[in-house]
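Page 37, continued from 36.
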């Protein structure tokens, strides 16, 4: 017998899963913060980042399965899928950064990443807030405040990467270190971009349903 509940869907299931995905994305960013601020000579591991990415992938698959089983959803199906994809890209990008640090720790020793981590933390926190408030029908005024915060963070990240590259190109470091750090700076900025992309999907959802 076909269950009406499975056809029409449990009201909160997608909110629960999206919030879990956002929390996992923030967890990966916090782990990266710890890795980038770890003292020289420490023995970093990729397991935390791999586990976070795997868990978020699992959540994304649960969202896909729920969409297949559910006939009617409170949010548009395409929006749910787009938001799940945008959120998954955050821990995936974070894992790439961790991989590069682990394979060449001597190249990043002594480099100050505190400004990048502060921006990533702020962006991830803002995304978590936006998604948690979707459940309670995020209002346009509140959306504008949060979206403006994300846009400012993203703009600050763009400026920061240019400043870092300017300093790097004039630092006199060996070419391999320059390449390694440029790659890291670009990826760190991309984490903020991924958060902005998730926020953009939330904004589109709220505008559609306002």
């Amino acid at each position: 017998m076909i269950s009406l509940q499975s056809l029409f869907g449990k009201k909160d299931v997608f909110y629960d899963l999206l919030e879990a995905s956002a929390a996992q994305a923030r967890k990966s960013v916090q782990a990266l913060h710890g890795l980038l601020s770890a003292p020289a000579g420490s023995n970093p591991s990729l397991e935390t980042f791999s586990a976070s990415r795997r868990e978020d992938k699992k959540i994304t698959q649960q969202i896909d399965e729920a969409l297949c089983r559910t006939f009617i959803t409170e949010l548009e199906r395409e929006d749910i899928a787009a938001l799940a994809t945008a959120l998954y890209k955050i821990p995936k990008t974070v894992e790439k950064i961790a991989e590069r640090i682990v394979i060449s720790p001597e190249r990043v020793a002594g480099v100050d990443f505190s400004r990048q981590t502060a921006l990533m933390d702020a962006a991830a926190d803002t995304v978590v807030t936006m998604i948690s408030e979707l459940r309670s029908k995020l209002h346009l005024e509140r959306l504008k405040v949060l979206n403006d915060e994300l846009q400012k963070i993203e703009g600050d990240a763009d400026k920061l990467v240019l400043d870092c590259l300017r300093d790097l190109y004039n630092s006199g470091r060996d070419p391999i270190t320059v390449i390694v750090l440029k790659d890291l700076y670009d990826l760190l900025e991309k984490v903020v971009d991924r958060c902005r992309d998730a926020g953009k999907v939330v904004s589109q959802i709220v505008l559609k349903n306002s």
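The CA atoms of residues 21 and 56 lie 6 Å apart. Flag for discussion at group meeting. The two ends are 37 Å apart (CA to CA).
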